[in-house]
Structures are given as C-alpha cells and as structure tokens.
Specification:
Structural class: alpha+beta
Number of strands: 7
Strand content: 5-15%
Mean pLDDT: 82
Helix content: 55-70%
Low-confidence stretches: 1-34
Number of helices: 11
Strand order of the largest sheet: 2-1-3-7-6-5-4
Largest sheet: 7 strands, mixed
C-alpha cells in the first residue's frame, strides 16, 4: 500500500502540471504586435472605454476596478499567439485546442467559470449560373469564450467579420451593459440571421433547378444534364445542414437552462434565436427532401427519354427489316423463283416493299412509337 501511495504522489503533481503548456507567458510582452488580435476593448456600463493596447492591459483594468468586461477579438490565431491570452484568462486547454485548430461541430461546453460556444458561419457565394461545380455556400467558424468579466471571440474563415456587430452593440449601451452574455446572444443572433439570408438565396437556386427539370428541354440537350447541378446543390445543402442541426441543442440550453454566466434578462432573448434556428433547420431539411425528389424526377425523365429513343430505334429497325427480308429472299440465286424473269417483277417487288414499309410506319406512328 505504501508503494501505491508513493506512486500516486508522483503521478498527481505531474497531472496537475500538464496544463502548464500555456503558463510561459510574459505579462509585460506587447501582444498588440500579434496580427491575430483584431480588436481589444473594455466596456463599462455599456460604453467602450479608452483603447487597450494588449489583452493583459484589458484584464488588469477590468479586474482592478471590479466593473465591466473585456472583449477581445481574434482571427485565426496560432498556438503561440493564443497561448498568452489563454493563460491570462484561465482558459481550459481542451477548449483552446479546439479554438486554434477549428473544424469543430457547433456546441456549447462549460469549463469551470467559462462557457465555450462554437458557431458555424454560412456565407452565400454569388454566382451568375449554377453549374455542376458551383460553390453555393462557404463556411467559417466563430468560437466564443464567455466568462464573468470577459468575452474572447476567435474567428476562422475569410467571411463573417464581427466588426459591424461590435459597432452595432456599442450603439446600444443598455443591452451591452448586461455584460458578456449580451455579446454571446448578439453573436448567436447574428449567425442565425445569416442562416436565414442564406436559406432564402438557396431557395432561389432550388426553384431555378426545379423549373429547369420540369420544363421542356432545349433542342439538342439531354434530360439528364441537370443531375450534376442537382447533386452539387445537394452537397452544398448538406454542408448547410451540418452547421444548423448541431446548434439546436446549445440554443435550447441557453434559452431554457438557468446558467450563472447568462443574465436572466438576456436568456429570454435566446428563446427568439432558438425559434429562428428551428425554423431554418426545418427549411434545410425540406431543401434536402425536395432535392431528393427533384433528382429522382430528373433521373426518371432521363429513363423515359431513353425508352422513347429505344422505341424509335426499334420502330425503324422493324421497317428496315421488310426490305431486308425480301431482298434476302431474292438474293438466294435459285433458278426457279416466282417473278424472277417477269418484265414487271422488279417494279412489283419495290412497290410491295414500299407499301409494307409505309403501312408499318403509319401503324407505329398511330401508336406513338414514332
């Protein structure tokens, strides 16, 4: 037993020290030189105070006064760039790893006194014509660390800047005075509003494809030519769905479950965001089902067109079989054959062939085969 206690005494300190990968942080170092920090500010009573040079300075100003909160915005930070900030604000290493490497599912996690939220942003890619290789939606990510007196946003992707959102919040001091949870709500609302706009644009693309599939094909075009466009649009809708569906549960938690870091007044607003998100999710699921139906209709039309082509080929083959058979009989070179030496035999055979072929042609056309 004493050996086991000695072993635990050795292992436990090492486990406690494992997160110190982020403790080599010089608080006096100037982090403003880091290109990852796009904005750093302290807010008190809903109003932005004088610019802060570094996240360290912002944290000092907030915690010395005991009022307000710091909002630090970063864009695609590296591990080295984020290490100091993570140590300064006591962020959990697992959440930091997710924020740096991105490509995460939308989620809400709690680490001690910090909420870690991941949002997938969706941007509609404008295009003059939808093709089998057109990119319809472009995705990005916004990670949000929400604490008692700070908000740290980490953005990945070229689109989805939060600058306009920050300015809009600064124009509403009453809302911003609610603290970090007000920022978290505004980010969630901003992301979901983007979903609504993209859903409307994707609906237009689906309507365009649907009209093309069920309209008369242009001369020389194939009925199955739209399958590539439909499949590409379906892939893009699937990407859209991956952003929307996993976010449903986090929004329900933020709107229904009491949380110490979320102001009760702000929690009411999360219900509206959750409702909008549920509506978008229903739209995206409907898009997927509609595209399945359109794809099946397109393939069915292509099959019908192929069957029509086969009937035409079969009909002409039946007509050509008549002269082939008669000419084959008279090409056997027997001496004693009817009308072989008759003066009008040749004309009679040609006339018979023409009459039989014409009769078959009329019968097939009357039945819709030609």
């Amino acid at each position: 037993m004493s050996m086991i206690r000695d072993l635990r005494a050795v292992v436990r300190p090492s486990l406690r020290k494992s997160p110190t990968v982020y403790t080599n942080y010089d608080a006096t170092r100037d982090h403003s030189a880091s290109s990852a920090v796009v904005d750093c500010a302290v807010y008190r009573d809903g109003r932005r105070l004088k610019e802060c040079a570094t996240p360290h300075e912002a944290m000092i100003r907030v915690r010395e006064s005991g009022e307000g909160f710091a909002w630090i915005g970063l864009h695609e930070p590296t591990e080295a760039e984020f290490a100091g900030i993570a140590a300064e604000f006591g962020l959990h290493p697992l959440a930091v790893e997710d924020a740096v490497h991105a490509h995460q599912r939308p989620k809400l996690e709690r680490y001690d006194d910090t909420l870690f939220t991941v949002f997938k942003t969706i941007h509609y890619v404008e295009h003059t014509e939808l093709t089998a290789t057109s990119q319809v939606v472009e995705t990005g990510e916004v990670m949000c660390f929400t604490g008692r007196d700070f908000v740290i946003t980490v953005r990945h992707g070229g689109k989805g800047s939060l600058r306009a959102l920050r300015h809009r919040l600064q124009d509403d001091p009453e809302l911003l005075s609610k603290g970090p949870s007000a920022v978290l709500h505004s980010i969630a609302d901003h992301v979901v509003d983007g979903y609504i706009a993209v859903a409307s644009a994707v609906q237009d693309d689906i309507d365009e494809v649907e009209i093309d599939v069920f309209s008369a094909p242009a001369k020389g075009s194939s009925r199955g030519a739209d399958a590539g466009r439909i499949y590409q649009l379906k892939r893009e809708v699937l990407e859209f769905k991956r952003a929307v569906a996993p976010l449903l549960r986090p929004m329900q938690q933020l709107s229904e479950r009491p949380m110490r870091l979320v102001d009760p007044d702000i929690q009411k607003y999360f219900r509206d965001v959750a409702d909008h998100l549920a509506r978008v999710h229903e739209q995206v699921v409907g898009f997927d089902e509609l595209l399945n139906s359109i794809l099946q209709a397109n393939l069915a039309q292509a099959t019908v067109a192929q069957n029509e082509d086969m009937r035409k080929i079969t009909s002409w083959a039946a007509i050509v079989a008549v002269p082939t058979m008669i000419c084959g009989v008279y090409g056997m070179n027997f001496d004693h054959m009817p009308e072989l030496h008759w003066k009008y035999g040749y004309a009679m055979v040609l006339g018979g062939i023409a009459a039989v072929c014409l009769g078959i042609h009329r019968a097939l056309k009357r039945n819709g085969w030609l």
